[in-house]
Amino acid sequence: MPVARVSVALRCAAWAEALPRGFVARVVRAVLEDRKVGLRRPAEVGVVLADDPFVRRLNRDHRGKDKPTNVLSFPLDAASAPDGARPLLGDVVLAYRTIRREAKAEGKRLASHAAHMLVHGTLHLLGFDHERARAARVMEAHEVRILRRLGVPDPYRAP
Fold first, then answer.
1. Residues 96-155: pLDDT tens digits?
2. According to a count of CB atoms within 10 Å of the terminal CB, is the N or C end of the chain lower?
């Protein structure tokens, strides 16, 4: 059975202390398995665990918003991968201070909120969005189901 490769780049040392080893890969793989991605041919997802200034620059340069955000996704066209190559679905980037601040404000564990942002970002790589109400409901339902399987409480319910 093909296995998804999850490449993690650590650009903020605080993440190494905040998340258990293997956490990021486990969460991203849970999304891919749920959506049945990579069953025939293994896929790859890149994750960047970054600080807020890095994410702010990306957000400014790619979305025209000069502020940090919790998660950014940069999907690629996996269908364009050469035959036999592992398709790269894209990259998910998390901002440490923003996610830590949101988790504290919402009374959530940092790892739970980070898991939610990883699931959310990975679903974006797979074409999900939340621009319209119906699309948002569909995306949120996937998030809640995947997070439940990972033992993470529903992020849309008050703790």
1. 999 999 999 999 999 999 999 999 999 999 999 999 999 999 999 999 999 999 999 999
2. N
Domains of the chain, residue spans: 5-149
Q: What is the pTM for the complete model shown? A: 0.94
Q: Are 28 and 45 in contact (CB under 8 A)?
A: yes
Superfamily, domain 5-149: Metalloproteases ("zincins"), catalytic domain (3.40.390.30)
Q: Specify the 3-state DSSP secondary structure of 101.
A: helix
User: How far is it, in rounded angstroms, from Cα 136 to Cα 141?
Assistant: 8
The four Cα atoms 20, 16, 29, 147 give a dihedral, to 10 degrees, of 60
- The stretches of the chain forming alpha helices (DSSP H) are 14-18, 23-34, 52-63, 96-106, 110-125, 133-149
Alpha-carbon span 100 to 79, nearest angstrom = 35
Q: Bridge partners of 50?
A: 95
